[in-house]
Design goal:
This protein is of the alpha/beta class. The protein is 31% helix and 28% strand. It contains seven helices and eleven strands.
Amino acid sequence: MTAPNPIVRFLSHFFEWPVTEMSSPYNEQLKVVLHRGRYKLITEGAIYSFSDLYSNFRKSFERLKWEEHTIESCLIMGLGMGSIPDMLVSKFNKKIEFTAVEIDEVVTFLAHTYVLSPKKINVQIYTADAGSFLEWHDGRYDMICSDVFVGDQIPDSLQSEEALLAMRDMLNPGGILLFNRLNRFESDTSRNLAFMERVFLKVFPEGGHIDVSGNWMFVSNLASFSV
């Protein structure tokens, strides 16, 4: 896939430039647009990827105390169009071995076509349901980024104590979990607070959340992030 021509890239700073639209068994509409010079993946009103402007993870990475951690491997649950590996490599200049789990093969195709292959970012990808993946996968990672949504909802299978225990067991000593959750409405905040108190802090007692403008990023060790 060649990069968009300079005129199209320039125009995309003023309005979204349509690139392609596809569907899959998991997503009735998968729309790729060029916006502000970056590829954005939109489905059913939710933004799944937006390069380094995918601000929930970008703001979290900006606050992570990188000097206190050795991050050489990263598991991404919910690849989208590859925003997380893209920004870690392109914006934060990290050399990390990436593994991802993504249930939708069409999403994986779009990620390879528009982001990963053009930028030569290598990601080992498992095509699987993320909840099931946690039950059988035995890899170990320095960082896990959970970004799994069906529309704007996180599957129940990833919000259980069992799922978080599995993520904890996949972390190397000193490893970091980042768990993305929407926080747009009061109802979201109520659910997030309940999730934190009843589930998250039971598994990660040193954890907490970072407010990243419309989302809360739950992290396994709050002290690893600047205030």
